[in-house]
Every structure is written in C-alpha cells, then in structure tokens.
Specification:
about 650 residues; alpha+beta; Heat Shock Protein 90; Ribosomal Protein S5, domain 2; 3 domains; eight-stranded mixed β-sheet; elongated; binds adenosine-5'-diphosphate; binds magnesium ion
C-alpha cells in the first residue's frame, strides 16, 4: 500500500490556520476585513485577555443567507470570487475563502448572522473545526462572530503568544489603522477580562474627512506635525494618492509610523517604503523614518493582492511608475510646506493632546498611551509589556531598530523654570491689545505656517557657532554650519545639473591610496566624480591622483570629501540611482566646504548667510536632515512670560 494520503479537511484547515492565524490580531484582521467587505458601517470589537480568551466582532453589514452560513466554513468558500479572471482585479479585501474555516479549526467559534432578505437568522457553532450546532435564531440584520479560546487545540502555537498586553496592543493598533482608512465608519474596541470591567480602547465615530479621523485617533499635537497631501492623481486618474506625512524634523528610528493602504487594504510594501525614504533623502538622516499615512487608490487590475497568505503584500503592475509617483508627490509636498521647526516649549511630559480646549473626542487613556508609545518611541506606557517595546504594530510590520541618528542636542528648554503647562494651544490666537509692541491685533502664525526668513535681523552670534536673529514672527537661532551646508548643497547640485562646476586646479596633484573596496567603487563612479568637478586618474596600484577639485575645498577637506564619497557609493547608495549618488556627492562637498562651527563671523557675513539661506529651495534642514534653524515664536515667548 502506498504511503501518501490525502489530509482530512480538519488537518488541512489547521495547517492553513498556521499561515492565516498567527495571533489574535490576525483573527481580528480577517474578521474586520469581512465586515468591511459586507458593507458594514458600525463595527464593534470586544476582546478579553488580549484576544486569547475572547474576540467578538459585531457588524451591521449584509449578513449571510442561511445556506451560506454553513458554507462559509468550507475551505475555499467565498462569495467574493467566482472565476480566475476575477482574481486579476479584486475589489474586496477578502477573496481566498480561507479565514473562517482556519479560525474555526483553532478555536471555539459561534457565528450569528442574518441577511435582511430573510426573516430569521442563523447560529452556527463550531469547535476545533467540528460542527456542533446549526440553528435558526432571532437576530438583527448583520453578523456577529465570537471566537473563544484561540489555539486551545494547538498548544504549540499558544506557547508563542506574547503577554496579554502585547497581544492587545497589536489588536488596538490594527483596529486603529483600519479606522484611519475608513473615516466614514464607526469603530469601537473594548477590552475586558473575566475579573476586570471592560474598558473602551477606541471609539471613532463617523467623520467627514480623513483629517478629522487623524485628529480623532492621534490628537491635535500629532496632526500639527503633519502635512496633508493635496489630492493627487496620475495616468488620467488611474492612480490616486492622498494622506499625511510628517515634516523632516519629525524623525522616527523605525518604520512603525508608516501606514500604507492600497485600495483601503493595510499593506506593507518595500517599493512604497523605498519611495518614502527617497522622498526624504537629504532631508533626513539615512537611519531615520517619517510618519506617513498614505492611501493609494487605483484600479483593482493595477495591483495583485494575491501574493501573500495574509494578504499584507501587494505587487503593482506598474511598480516603478508607482514608486516615482509617490516619491515625487511626497517630495513636492515637503518642499511646498517649507516648515520651520519651533523651539520646544517647556512642557509637562504628561500633557495630553486632548487637553486642548475644544477637543471633543473621547480618547480612552489606554489609546492615548498607545499613541504616545508609538510616536515617542520612549519608555513603554503603563500596561504595555516593556519586554516588547517600540511597536504596537502586528509582528510582520516590525523592523529592527537602527542606530539612533546623530543630532545636535537642542532638547533643553529655552526657559527652564516656573513654566505653566501650556503645551497645547489653539492653532491661531489673537494677541491681546494690551501687549504693545506687536502688530495691532496680529494673528500669530501657527507653528507650521511657512516662516519668512527674508526679513531676519541679525542680533549676534553665540558660541561662535549659532546666529541669533529677530524676525517678525519671533526669535531665531540658526546653525551657521548647517545653514551654509544647505546653501552650498543646492549650489553644487545646480552647477552639476548645468554642467558648469567651479573647479580649482591643484598646484601639485594629491595622491590618495585606496583600499580594495574603495578601488572598486572608484572605478564605478569615476565619471560621477568628474561630473562633480574632480579631475582624477589612476596612479599606480590602488592609488589615485587628484589634479583638480570643486572650488572652495581646502586640501584636508578635499581628501576627506573624496573618501567620504567613495564610502557613500560603497554603502547606502550602491543600488540607488545616479541622481541619488549625485545628491550624496553634493551633500558631502557642501558639508566639507561649509563654514565650520566655532568660527567667529562678522555681522556682514551673517547677513549674507541668512539672505542666501532664504533663497534656497528647502531652507529648513541640511542635506543630512539636521535642522537649520530653531524659531521661538512670538506666541511661545508671550506664553512663557505668562502674557497670554
Ligand atoms: P473570504 O473573505 O476570502 O471570502 P472568509 O473565510 O473570510 O473568506 O469568509 C467566507 C465568506 O463568508 C465570505 O466570502 C462572505 O461571504 C462570508 N462572510 C464572512 N464574514 C462575513 C460578515 N461579517 N458579513 C457577511 N458575510 C460574511
Ligand atoms: Mg475574509
């Protein structure tokens, strides 16, 4: 007798569950997607013990017909797909028909459902994949699925679950993300346990715009840091992009604050992640990431969603087009917003965004903690497993945290003592008439308003490194090195593009020894070095002679710049485009040639520097992403002196 056997459905479902159901949050994801596919507008999720003991999701969607209620638990049973052709253009979140049978095979599940087309509903009870009951029942239109004791029959899988709080954090994060993609729907999430009373984690009532939903979910403080993308479309509306991105000053050390939706499906996608990084290239240090909430809507035929069992990956048919579209859209939005970072006001670490007058939304304490946790990257809030820090995202979204970015330390508050807790104020406010010296009844800028650099008046220099200047909108401190770096960077890029790089000929060629790796890189990018204004040639074994170089570099800086450029080519930029390499070269030259810190400057020179800075395309951060200037807005100064 042969040794190969066909597995029973029960075993097959359990195996499939290994792919689809990784943890309680995966159950929530599949059921949430089913509710959304069913056209629900009210979705309520209750969990107990981080979803291990209970997950219940109730919706007001289309419900299931009596005959379908049982069929839904057969493998590959789906109402969403009937032919191979339809697989080419899937408009629903589900299509594989695997989720319900998989979940039912590893839990005790009760389905209650009624379609508006039938007078009575159906109740189906299944445990470990075995049908226990199927009855007629009175039930409102819609569907409620209750999943108890997840993995009760798969002890190996159960062992891999993290603490209840961690699993709960994954669920909360997932529901939050879906609520961001569907602002017009009502999402509620509560958590309880047998011992404790149930607690509301999220209540997002329907709102008219994504902006309002971001406010609901993350609060005013986060919204302030974001720029909303203008509605953008490409290829006659075939691709539409919308969402929010943070300014370059907001730097996260991992990708956990990047949320990507394609046709309202939460995904992770290397192509889009790369496009985002490319948009921030030279605006942010390489190991840093922004906050981004992006929605791409396109014809379902443009994207293949059937590339991963949990449907979290997609493949675009026109991948490189989508990449460039997203990169350019983000970059243009960033350049148009040209923000100035505000100096940090002394704030209470516990100040909550909803302390803002007029904030009308009920945040639960826990949701707030999750938000702070996800955004601040700081210590774990109470109730979250500190052994699992950094992310409240489902496991597949985790990336190892890279080394922290180099940054100047401006964290010290400008005025350290006796400050009121004024972290969050209305965005625009009137200066009281009683305060002379300010424009009559002037409306002060919100921090994100484009600041005018043009009319700054230099007051002096501190530490021979920072220029202090007065402006209409407050007090400015400008890092002289970084400012000059930005000016030179754009100059060098411009010269490179025009093919007119200012060059200096060296009296004697400079001979530089190279390592084997540097030699390889040198051969690869020699043409780019020429284009950047260098004149180099091989000079014996692993040695090059530099005969001319871009103007403005001292011999010591020149040597360092060459090595730095070879290093850039060798590491991060190996696989990226020529234009990125050029930007890298320009950034390196600018950094080397820029006025150093600890250099006393005459008033005239400082004036010149600010004027030139105001003419740059993106004056607010250096090519490596460090801030150029800090602004203490008049509003903040008034507040700090208790004048408003
Ligand atoms: P898929 O979503 O891939 O079709 P599932 O196993 O998740 O597969 O669900 C099987 C079928 O059960 C769905 O195609 C749908 O017809 C039905 N279904 C599941 N959940 C719901 C719900 N909340 N409301 C209405 N129908 C549902
Ligand atoms: Mg489904």
């Amino acid at each position: 007798m042969g040794r190969i056997r066909i597995l029973s459905d029960v075993v097959a479902n359990k195996i499939a569950a290994g792919e689809v159901v990784e943890r309680p949050a995966s159950v929530v994801k599949e059921m949430l997607e089913n509710s959304l596919d069913a056209g629900a507008t009210q979705i309520r999720i209750d969990v107990e013990s981080g979803g291990r003991r209970l997950i219940r999701i109730a919706d007001d969607g289309c419900g299931m017909l009596r005959d379908d209620a049982l069929l839904a638990f057969e493998r590959h049973a789906t109402s969403k797909l009937s032919s191979v052709d339809e697989l080419e253009a899937i408009a629903t979140l589900g299509f594989r028909g695997e989720a319900l049978p998989s979940i039912a095979s590893v839990s005790r599940l009760v389905l209650e459902t009624r379609s508006a087309a039938e007078p009575t509903g159906t109740r189906v009870e299944i445990a470990g994949g075995k049908l226990l009951a199927c009855d007629e029942t009175a039930f409102p239109a819609g569907t409620t699925i209750t999943v108890r004791d997840l993995f009760f029959n798969v002890p190996a899988r159960k062992k891999f679950l993290r603490s209840e709080q961690t699993e709960l954090a994954h669920i909360a994060s997932l529901v939050t993300h879906y609520s961001l993609a569907h602002p017009g729907k009502n999402f509620e999430l509560t958590s309880g346990g047998p011992a404790n009373a149930s607690k509301e984690l999220l209540r997002a009532t329907p709102v008219a715009s994504p902006r309002e939903r971001v406010f609901q979910v993350f609060g005013a403080a986060v919204l302030d840091e974001l720029v909303e993308l203008p509605p953008l479309s490409a290829q006659q509306g075939a691709f539409r992009l919308s969402g929010f991105i943070s300014r370059p000053q907001i730097q996260k050390t991992n990708r956990n604050s990047i949320f990507l939706f394609v046709n309202r499906r939460l995904i992770r996608d290397r192509l889009l992640l790369h496009a985002i990084s490319a948009a921030y290239h030279n605006l942010m240090p390489p190991a840093c990431y922004p906050f981004a909430l992006l929605q791409i809507d396109c014809d379902p035929g443009e994207v293949d969603v059937n590339v991963h069992p949990s449907k979290t990956e997609v493949r675009f048919r026109a991948g490189s087009f989508v990449h460039d579209f997203v990169r350019d859209a983000l970059r243009e939005t960033l350049i148009a917003s040209r923000p100035a970072p505000s100096a940090p006001l002394p704030t209470s670490p516990h100040a909550a965004p909803d302390a803002q007058p007029g904030a009308r939304l009920p945040y639960s304490e826990f949701t707030q903690q999750l938000e702070n946790f996800a955004f601040d990257q700081g210590a774990a809030p109470a109730g979250i497993d500190p052994a699992q820090p950094r992310s409240v995202l489902p496991q597949p979204f985790l990336q190892p945290p890279p080394a922290p970015p180099r940054r100047f330390d401006f964290s010290a508050p400008p005025i350290p003592i006796g400050q009121p807790d004024t972290a969050f104020e209305p965005l625009r406010l009137k200066v009281p008439e009683t305060h002379g010296g300010f424009p009559d009844g002037a409306v002060l800028d919100a921090p994100q308003t484009m600041a005018s650099l043009d009319d700054l008046r230099v007051l002096g220099q501190i530490h021979d490194s920072f220029i202090v200047a007065a402006g209409r909108d407050g007090l400015w401190i400008i890092d002289q090195h970084v400012a000059h770096e930005r000016i030179l960077f754009e100059q060098v890029l411009g010269q490179q593009q025009r093919g007119q790089v200012e060059q200096q000929r060296l009296l004697l060629p400079m001979v530089l020894p190279l390592s084997p790796a540097q030699q390889v890189e040198y051969e690869r990018i020699a043409g780019e070095l020429d284009a950047a204004g260098f004149e180099t040639e091989p000079f014996g074994h692993r040695t090059i002679a530099v005969k001319a170089a871009p103007a403005g570099l001292s011999p010591a800086d020149l040597e360092r710049a060459v090595y730095e450029i070879l290093e850039i080519a060798e590491t991060e930029l190996r696989k990226v485009s020529v234009s990125d390499l050029r930007r890298g070269i320009a950034a390196s030259l600018a950094c080397r040639a820029a006025i150093k810190i600890n250099t006393p400057l005459e008033a005239k020179k400082m004036d010149w520097l600010l004027r030139e800075l105001s003419r740059t395309q993106y004056p607010m951060s250096c090519p490596h992403g460090r801030p150029v200037a800090l602004r203490y807005s008049t509003r903040d100064i008034l507040k700090s002196f208790h004048r408003i």
